[in-house]
Amino acid sequence: MLDLLSSPTLSVLLLLALVLCMTVILWMLRRMRLVNNLYKSLRNKSSVALSESNSDLAQQELVLQLHKQLEDAQKISETFKKFVPNQFFEHFAKDGLESIELGKADEDDVAILFCDIRGFTGLSEQMSPQELMNFLNSYFLRMNAPIHDNCGFIDKFIGDAILALFDHPGGSNADKARDALKAASDMRVALTLYNEHRAKCNYPPVNNGIGIHFGPVILGTVGSEDRMDSTVIGDTVNTAFRLESLAPKYHADIVVTAQTLDISGMRDSYPHRVLDWVRVKGKKQAIEVFEILEHLPDEERIRKLSTAKLIEKGLALRIQQRWDESIKCFQQALQIQPEDKLVSHHLEHCYRMRSNQMPADWDGAIKL
């Protein structure tokens, strides 16, 4: 999926998706304005008709026409919300739909969640076009509920990926971060149930990775005067995307930043373990990343937590370039859990770095 995301083909697909969304949005806006004008016209006609005649039949006909147009407007409004999340308008259309214009923007601190199906390319090659669409819609349906149930909303479906925001209207930053963490755990639980259903139908299981970061973003409208779309941009979005790409590298389901954990206030209550100190692509500053374990079965969670302290100590020693001591910590962890792939990963890196001359200004971060 990562190769696909960086390919020219994806750029074309994203452009086509953007054009399609903007076309639909523009059409709906025009329809809603048309209905609004028609409503005003009917209201004016009603006033004239009632002043000229007291006929019950005339009144009933006007009422029925007005009622039908209002029903049509409501249907258009509900359809419109399926293409553009209502939460977006709460940010930059506070004065109504008429206030929406190209370049309208608002800044907010939110939690960004990025979710991607692992091995999607190989999976999709085994399906017909219709089977692929049925699968994606079935999968998205199950991922959508945990997001909305935790005060979040989906900004974009990008191929098999999901970009979601958690802004918790009226809530604190801690609420936003907690919502995203809870949604991620619930999504993994929903995925387990989905795979149980797929197994009954003799379908292969599906796996995904999730990345979460908290920080400032810009929400706004982009495009041209006749074609617009809502979007969210910023370093926070890019970081969440990069975190998701780390999930398979560290054999983790949910990867989050230390900043997200700290803002949530759940560092001491939400099961997790440190993964690494990394510098992701596009960022100069290194970040500490963690694996969330809340959704795992008790046995697996306990198994991973049993090596957490030794992994944390080993990483601290690695940052100080105390290679032998760091390796010793990871070897002890491997004795406790011989099949812990995260421990094996760190051992391999320590052996490699010990044999190489690290730069004098190296801060201990792994560049990914």
Verbal overview:
With 368 residues, the chain is an alpha+beta fold. It folds into three domains: 2-83; 85-270, Alpha-Beta Plaits (2-Layer Sandwich); 298-368, no CATH class. Helix content is 56%, strand content 19%. It contains 13 helices and nine strands. It has helices at residues 2-5, 8-52, 56-83, 86-92, 120-124, 129-149, 173-200, 235-246, 258-264, 298-305, 308-319, 323-336, 341-355, and strands at residues 105-117, 152-158, 161-166, 208-224, 227-233, 254-257, 272-279, 287-292, 366-367. Strands 1, 2, 3, 4, 5, 6, 7, 8 and 9 form a nine-stranded mixed sheet that branches. A hairpin with a 7-residue loop joins strand 7 and strand 8 (287-292). Helix 11 (308-319) packs antiparallel against helix 12 (323-336). The longest helix has 45 residues, at 8-52. The model is unreliable at 1-6 (pLDDT under 50).
Name its key features.
Alpha-Beta Plaits; 368 residues; single chain; 19% strand; 3 domains; alpha+beta; 9-stranded mixed sheet; 56% helix
CATH class identity of the largest domain? Alpha Beta
- Radius of gyration (CA) equals 26 Å
**Structure class:** alpha+beta
Principal-axes shape call: elongated
Helix proportion: 55-70%
Q: DSSP strand (E) fraction?
A: 15-25%
The total number of structural domains is: 3
Number of strands: 9
Unreliable residue runs: 1-6
One letter per element, helices H and strands E, the order comes to: HHHHEHHEEHEEHEHEEHHHHE
N→C terminal distance: 16 Å
Mean pLDDT: 82
Number of helical stretches of at least 4 residues: 13
Largest sheet: 9 strands, mixed
Going by CATH, the architecture of the largest domain would be 2-Layer Sandwich
